[in-house]
Each structure stands twice: as C-alpha cells, then as structure tokens.
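Re: export button greyed out
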Amino acid sequence: MLHTIPQSLGPVERMIVPPGSARRGKLLLVAATVLLFGVLLAQITDVAGVTSFGFVSWRPLLSGYIIWAGALCAAQVMIRGEAGQRAAFVLPAVLFTVAMVVFPTVFGLYIAFTDWNLSAVAGRRFNGLDNLRTLFADRYFWNALLNMVYYVLSVLVQYAIAFGLALLLNAEIKARKFFRVAFLLPLMLSPVAVSWMIGKSLMEYRFGPAATLARHLGWDNPAFFSTPWLARSSIIAMDAWVSIPFMMILLLAGLQALPSEIKEAAKVDGASGWQSFKEITFPLMLPVSITVIILRVIFQLKLADIVINVTAGGPGGATDTVSSFIFREYRDRSNVGYGTMLAEFYLVIIIIFVALILKGASRWMQRDN
Amino acid sequence: MATHVETPTTRSSLWSRRPQFLTSSLLIYAALVFWAFVSLFPIYWTITTSFKTAVNVTQGHLIPFVDFTPDWKGWRSLGLSPDTIFAQSTVRDEFIRRFLNSIVASSGASFLAVLIGSLAAYGLSRFSYKFLWMKNKDISFFFLSQLILPPVVLAMPFLVLYKHVMLLDTLVGLILVYTLMVLPIVIWIMRDQFDTIPVELEQAALVDGCSIWGAFLRIVLPIALPGMVAAFILSVILCWNEYFFAALLTSSNAKTLPVMVASQTGSQGINWWSMAAIATAAIMPLVLVGIFLERYIVKGLTEGAVK
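Workaround output, generated via the alternate export path:
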C-alpha cells in the first residue's frame, strides 16, 4: 500500500478529540438510534393494529434511516476525530449499498418462499419449499438456463472479433478517430432501440434490408426468428453488435499500453505478422483479455432487454434468457413468489459460477507467471 | 489476422515489396470499412426510415433524394415536424415528458453515484480501514461484487418495498435504483483515478494545516475532475439505456424513454416511419454524446480495467 496516508502524519493536536465533542457525538448517535427504533416500533405496532398512529406508508421508517445514517457519519467525526473523518469517506456508500442491496435481498428470500400472485385474491401465503419443487420441475426454466450457456459461450466469439477490430485500429491507419467513433457508436444505443432498429426492422421478413440481402444471396425464406437455432443466432448477433465495442475499446487500450520495443525487436528478428501476434502480442494481452472476458460474461448473465423486446423468448423458449423468463413471470403472470424464487436460485448459480471463474483465472495467471 | 501476405520470392525486389504493402493495407482498410458499415448502417437505416412513406419502406429504397423523396410523415406523427412543431400535440407532450424523465433519472443517479462513489473510492485509495474482519480489499470487493447481482433479483423486492414507502413510479425511486446500479463502476473508475494522483500533494496540504476533507476538496478533487467527468458520462449512458427496472418500477408518471420506445415499437401494426422517428429521437442524444465525448467514454471504460 504505497498510496495510503500514514496514520500519524498530521500534527499531534489534531488527533486529540475534545471531550465535549465526543460526548455530544455519542448523545447524537444514541438519539438517532432511539428515533430509528422508535419509528420502527411505532410502525410495526401500527400495522399490527395495536396502536393507531395512522401511518399511510412505511416512509417514516425510510426517513428515520436517512436521519440515522447522517447522524452516524456526524457522530463518527465527533467521537473519533480524524479517524472518524477518514471513515466518513466510505460510510455514505456503505450505508447506501447495505440499505439498497442487503435488505431487499433478504426480503426477497422471504418472498421466495411464499405463494404470492398479485392477480390472485388470496394474497401472500407461506408455502415452504413448494416454489423450489416447482422450479426443479419447470422445463422452461432449465431451458432458459441452458440458453444462458450458449449466450455466455458467444462471448468468446465476440472476444475474437473485438480483438481483431482492436488490432485493426492499432495498425498504422488514416482516419483512426473516425473509425474509433464509428465502431464505438453501437455501444451507446439502448438495447430497446436496437431491438426495433435491427430485430424488428432490419431483419423484418418482408421489407427488411437484411432479409432482402439474404434473398439476393440465395436464401429463399429469410425468416430470422423462425427456427430455434436461427432465432438464437440472431439474438446473439444483435447482442454482439451492441457489446463488441465495449470489449474492443478495452483491448485497444491494452494494445496501446504494450511496450513498442518488444514488437520492434520481433520485427528485427524477422518474425512474420502472425508469428509476432501469436508469440508476443497475444501472451502479453492475456491479463487484459481475461479481465475483459470476465467482465463481459458478468454482463452477459444479465442479458434480457433485447430478448424481451424482439422475441419475448420465442420460438418455444429457444431465445429465453433467465432474466427475460423471470421478467415475463412477473409482468404477464404476476407470479411474484415463484419469480423471486427463480431469481434467488439464479443468483446462487451466478455467484458459484463467477466465483469459480475468478478462482480459475487467478490460479491460471499465477501458474502462468 | 489475415493481413499478412506471403511475399512471392520469385519476383524482383521492387515488385515483391510493393504488392505486399499494398495488399495488406488494402485488406486492413477493407476490414475497417466493412465494420464501419456494420456499425453505422442500422443507425443510418433508422434515421432515413423516419423520413420514408409506406411505399419507400416496402420497395426497400435506401438513399434519400436519389431513391426516394424524404417525407416528414414519421416526425409529424410525433409532432416534431416543421409544420406541427407549434401545433398542439399529445404525442409530443408525452414524448417530451419521457425524455425529461430520462434526463432527470440518468443525470440524477449519475450525480449521486459519482458523489458518494468518489468519496468511497478516495477513502479506499488513501486510508486503511478495518471494520470487523473487513479490510480495504474486502470493502472494495463488497462494492465490486454488486456488479454480479442481476436486476431480476432486486426487481421484485424493490417493487414491494417501493410500494410500501411510496416510491413506486417516482423519479426518486428510479434514481436510487440506478445509483445502486452504477455505483460499483464509478467506485472502480475513481479508485484508479485517485491511485494515480501522488499522495505527496495531500501530505503537503496536511502539514500546512488542512484537514483531511479540506485537502481532499481543495487539492485532490480538481485533479481528479476529468476522471469524475468520465465516470459521470459512462453512468449517464448506462442509466439512459436502462430498461428492466424502468419497465417494472414505473407505470405512468415516471416512465422513461426506453419504456416508451418499447411500448410503441412492441405493437405489431407496422407503422415504420413513426417507430423509426421515435427510435431516432431516442438514440440521437447518445449518438451525439458518442461522437463528441468519445474521449471521456474511452477514458471511463479503460480506467481500472486495463492496468
């Protein structure tokens, strides 16, 4: 840790906290905590019908949390002085993330074990492991999970294309700026707009230019979303169109950071273009490549927008991703309990999968060094 | 890479050198032009289609003024053509509301994320923390691990919780979710940014009697500003394009542009010109951002990931 500021850097008197300030800080923290739990208690009893404060919503609790978070930061500074000032840098982000992630995820776990359909009159009902049993029997979910394997594997193809483009942009070319901006543009577009632009108009069966081109090339019946594999490939192509620039930019930055002397030396030694790529550029680019691929795989696991808007999972679930499947479970069937169980189950799979990839990557890099 | 061509050894040196140089650079340019076409054609197609009439669409006319005469039909249906721009138009009002919602949601969330993200990144870059068993590395990983979380996991709990705290279908609610979404990326970019700033600058300020926060605000922040701008722009792009949460958490009041585009283009009645006009209007801001702020986007993307 070269960059950390040592603890005992400043003049000594700054480290000493006046006792009055520390006392006030403790008082503030206690008061805020009492307020938070007081509001929580009041709201719970109100919902239970014991008291009648007439709360319309749980918003007072939200305000209570915000006040408590603010008081916590202030109290840190007052009680612990400089150490508190240091803590105050990270605290807002930590408190925000904890409130926004940990609480909903835990709450989601509770929902996952209930039978809860928004359109049903019955309301929420605890049903134990029923959702999990349904999940294991749900052919469409496993099908969506299998599709995710194809989508994740397509990242490797995207990577190959992106690497090629990065090499092109790194070559001695004119108008590099133009090409870089042009190649970058697809990344800027919203997947929803891309769904229409490409999925629903360019690839449209009757008038779309892509279909027309395919007819000219001798394909009589260019229906891009008719058979499972065709539809899947079309979705993969669209997704690649949007996300290749992301990989390309990162790989290009990696290429530009390579020391030029090494390539010069290879040229002097008489290595051909392919040889110098295989022996020098590619191995040197491995760390960047692995980072890029892992990042893209993580993003790919969330793929949904294009599928939702172009095929809605069809034909017969061939293009469904897990996210788009759960999305329809929520929106079309209002099946909150089951959908959440699917989501939490998927999260567990993702965490295991990503952890394995990260572990494998770090072990592989170590062995390589 | 297919750019290397074997030199024919039988010919004279003059002829063996020139063709090789020419073919390889020709191949490079051919590949570049091909991919530029692949990247730009869908955008070109969308923009031109918004000026087409039904006949032009069905007959596959591509080049304006040569193939077909541009028509304001698509833009008229949006209320954005020259002859309707001053007239009353409910579609335009709707569109502008969604547009403003998108701007408020994405810039608000990006601002919030850059604010608390930069603070956290600075703290993690400069000080060593210890909270229970968690050290700096663990706290950083805690933030970064949020990237893995798929939106579906949070969507339903948020829907229920937001209903209870009355944040459903409000921009504030959307801003909070988007902040959460981009925060890990901002922290990643900014921590790298702060790592490159020499620590001696603050040490000098501290010796001169600045407090830690004073040194941060007066010395470090101005230097880190370009990185913050890059993080901000990248966040805006991500939030602007977000569809999943917006589709689930908003219904009428806080609906954003992607949701409107999806609902318009989702209907099957092929009304290509107006759909193309909506799509064009939705992508235009970001196309312009891409063209003029490309430097910052590249900076934001490459910060942190490539080291």
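Residues 154 and 302 of chain A are 14 Å apart (CA to CA). The button fix ships in the next patch.
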